[in-house]
């Protein structure tokens, strides 16, 4: 989608949302908070974060030809590069 399309879509969404009033927004926010507070959702979110972190490390290792799991100091130590 081009930037202009995103701006138009955002404007239409804002217009429709403002006409609907505050109540639907408040219900939506309450539902999102309820979902975020669910222990199963929190557990799955943490699992996903760990998986993404591992996969990112694997991709870095593959791209650089190194093994970041065994390097001293890890990423951000300022050494090596």
Summarize the structure.
With 81 residues, this protein is mostly helical. Helix content is 73%, strand content 0%.
If you had to describe this structure to a student in words, what would you say it looks like?
This protein has a domain at 11-64. Helices cover 73% and strands 0% of the residues. It is flat, with a radius of gyration of 21 Å. The chain is mainly alpha-helical. The chain is built from three helices and no strands.
Number of helices: 3
Q: Radius of gyration, rounded?
A: 21 Å
Helix content: over 70%
Number of strands: 0
Report the order of strands and helices. HHH
Poorly predicted ranges = none
Please state the average pLDDT score: 81
**Cα separation of the termini:** 37 Å
> What structural class do you assign from the helix and strand content?
mainly alpha
Estimated share of beta-strand residues: under 5%
What is the overall silhouette? flat
Sketch the major β-sheet: none
List the helices and strands and how they pair.
Layout: H1 3-20, H2 22-36, H3 39-64
Structural key phrases:
0% strand, 81 residues, mainly alpha, 3 helices, single chain
